[in-house]
Amino acid sequence: MARNSLIFAVSLLLLLQFFFTFCLSNDDKFTLLAMKTNIIDHSGILSNNWSTSSNTSICSWIGVSCDLNYQSVTVLNLSGMGLGGIVTPVIGNLSSLTSLDISYNNFSGSVPEELSHLHHLQQLLLSNNSFTGEIPVEIGNLKLLEILHIPNNSLIGPIPNVIFNMSSLKRISLKENKLTGSFPMDINCNPPVLEELYLYTNQLKGQIPSCLWDCKGLQIISLYKNKFTGSIPKKVGNLTLLKVLDLNDNNFTGTS
Fold first, then answer.
1. What is the per-residue pLDDT across 115-131, written as a single tens digit (0 to 9) for each?
2. pTM (two decimals)
3. DSSP letter string over the chain?
4. Mean pLDDT score of the chain, rounded to an integer?
5. 56 falls in which pLDDT band (50, 70, 90)?
């Protein structure tokens, strides 16, 4: 009797795992196909590959990598494929995604706030597109995010303060946009994981917060071609790991 109960329990567990995997895989499939309807794909890269007529797993689709156990999408890399159109809010349904790279394309419109639903995301790479609008403050909900790259777009408005309070971020690149406003004054460098900061060629102004120089892990600070004012504190010398400091083409007035 006990043996039959054990067999039943194991069989039920395997059935539930299969059902969960099947549902998760299909959810991701429908999400990718919904995304495709809003993507301009002149070369037909996705049109000929992301297809319901294909019997292949989505894990073999171009640009898609999966968790082999659950067949859920963990990496989406569409970089440099000559794609355009918009990134629709449905992308927030790819709940297992750890890396999103759609850089070097021609995507436009706003950066969808639904990216904040991707709670496993570690890399967000949107560089060299035509995104407009402001950086969604909801990005601050990505507690595991290590790399935030949205350079070479047409983003406007201020940098959300919350970005500099994300304790997991190692690299921030928002260079070559049209960002305005002042540098967020409240920066969390505990733990000091931030290593690279690129904000150059924007329209940022005001003083650089003194707490930036307390970020002991910084190796690169590139802020040139903005409108920053004030003085450069001598305690920048405390950043012993610093390799690059570029503050040219601003309005600084010496050291303090």
1. 999 999 999 999 999 99
2. 0.88
3. -HHHHHHHHHHHHHHHHHHHHHHHHHHHHHHHHHHHTTEE-TT-TTTTTS-TT--S-GGGSTTEEEETTTTEEEEEE-TTS--EEE--GGGGG-TT--EEE--SSEEEEEPPGGGGG-TT--EEE--SSEEEEPPPGGGGG-TT--EEE--SSEEEEPPPGGGGG-TT--EEE--SSEE-SBPPS----SS----EEE--SS--EEEPPGGGGG-TT--EEE--SSEEEEEE-GGGGG-TT--EEE--SSEEEEE-
4. 88
5. confident
